[in-house]
Amino acid sequence: MESTLPAVAEELLREIKKAFQETSQGRDLAFFRLKFVFGPSAVPALDLVDQRSVTRVKSPSGRTTYQVLGSSGKLYTCFGSCHFCTCPAFGFSVLQKSESLLCKHILAVYLSRALGACQELSVSEEQFSSILLAEEDDDA
């Protein structure tokens, strides 16, 4: 996991990965802890994981980012390496108000990675750049 998350959250995601790889005994407790730590983002993030809404996008040079198809049908770009999402909730709840550690999209990325549930998409360098620049175009 990335070092941008507090240690408790990182440990919880490691526990979830371990619980998923083993039997179902520890899953209920791990998911209860998930809801306790991440609050209202937990259930919607799990829904996104269940719907296979998280795609890891990789370029030939090895650069990666994640795209999450939100419940509204909009595609958001998430950067796991720097803990950032392009959704309005991230800007408001995480950056401005500091009410949450992360939005449901970033949590869905972390959970998908931990559970091995990411879809994979390889794109050209030009396509990768377009994905990154598309967010700037939306803001303009």
Automatic annotation (TrEMBL):
Annotated ranges, domain SWIM-type: 66-114
Pfam families registered for this protein in UniProt: SWIM
Entry annotated with the keyword Zinc: yes
Keyword line: Metal-binding, Zinc, Zinc-finger
Database matches in PROSITE patterns: ZF_SWIM (PS50966)
Keyword Lipid biosynthesis assigned: no
GO cellular component: Shu complex
GO molecular function per UniProt: zinc ion binding
InterPro entries membership: Znf_SWIM
Organism: Turnix velox (Little buttonquail)
GO biological process, one term: double-strand break repair via homologous recombination
Name of the protein: ZSWM7 protein
